[in-house]
Amino acid sequence: MTPQQATPNKRLPETHMNHRPKTLPGLLTVLTIGVLALSTLTASARTFRSADVHAKDFPTNLAVKFMGDELSKATGGKDNVKVFGDSSLGSEKDTVEQVKIGALDMVRVSSASFHGIVPESVIPSLPFLFRDIEHFRKTMYGPQGDKILAAFDKAGFIGLAFYESGARSMYAKKPIKTLADIKGLKIRVQPSDLMVSLVSAMGASPTPMPYAEVYTGLKTGLIDAAENNYPSYDESKHFESAPVYSETMHVMTPEVLVFSKKIWDTLSKEEQAAIRAAAKASVPYYVKLWEPKEKEAKAAVIKGGAKIVPAAEIDRAGFVAVEKPVWEKFATTPELKALVGEITNAK
């Protein structure tokens, strides 16, 4: 599927054509040229479709909508973006595949969706890689993040922007403070070898599952626990079946916004530059939405009955110790190891 194009102008009704004054050939020529020019202009207008699993008012969707507004301004209204949320175009896996083949223009997904496709995308998801959110921002919104985004190109995608997603933590029916608490639990993870390895290293049983199926999985007991950030925990109502949120803060996997390379290659250099600029402009806008969203979500789940185990009560050192081999397993090349070094050494 190519980007949507406007329907060409319809021909004038035949009765109108029969009554055109034959004494005004010059005027007819001008009118014909004008109609053709308008038709060409309209036909080149594009509304790029972008998919997301979150609700329409979630910060990721609002940020991509903001990007579309910026793109429209930059192109004089010629190009825009329409966001499809609520998994209406499919799961994260489905929509990534659609973007790959050019059936969909853009998608916003967790970068974990690309772990098996883009090796560099694994690095920001390494357990306990970032010291805090400021460390994340300095690197992922800086040169290290740009290096990772550029790596998407060879896999058939154009990496446009990273969005922070807070720290992911464990939630279950009981507190998870130590490795002993998590041992043997069936934990939903994103379909990613890294996340499977991360949870396995803790002694739990990882269960890959699409985000849209987690609520039912928790409710029916198919899984014992899951892990995510506060806004997703709130939005999905997972706290209804897994009411104890333990701030393990084990990863800060970013969201990523990508464009189909198949479609990208059909665009002019000017359009490409405008899309990149609009995507970059959406990042600070997103951060302004995300920060209060996290606070509101935490307050909402507490009001809904969730119990919070604060980070201070978590045996972080114990969890860090078992995750070190995961770094070695996934940062296997000199280039990936160098990238890890750049991130960890950033001040």
Keywords:
347 residues; 2 domains; four-stranded mixed sheet; alpha/beta; D-Maltodextrin-Binding Protein, domain 2; 14 helices; disordered N terminus
Can you walk through the features of this model?
With 347 residues, this protein is α/β, with parallel strands linked by helices. The chain has two domains: 40-165 and 254-294, 3-Layer(aba) Sandwich (D-Maltodextrin-Binding Protein, domain 2), CATH 3.40.190.170; 168-253 and 297-345, Bacterial extracellular solute-binding protein, family 7 (D-Maltodextrin-Binding Protein, domain 2, 3-Layer(aba) Sandwich). Helices cover 46% and strands 16% of the residues. The protein is built from 14 helices and eleven strands. Strands 2-1-3-10-4 form a five-stranded mixed β-sheet, sandwiched between helices. It has a four-stranded mixed β-sheet with strand order 8-5-9-11. A two-stranded parallel sheet has the order 6-7. β1, α3 (59-74) and β2 (79-84) form a beta-alpha-beta unit. α3 packs antiparallel against α12. The longest helix is centred in the C-terminal third of the chain and has 35 residues, at 269-303. The radius of gyration is 24 Å and the shape is globular. The protein starts with 13 loop residues before the first helix and ends with a helix. The model is unreliable at 1-43 (pLDDT under 50).
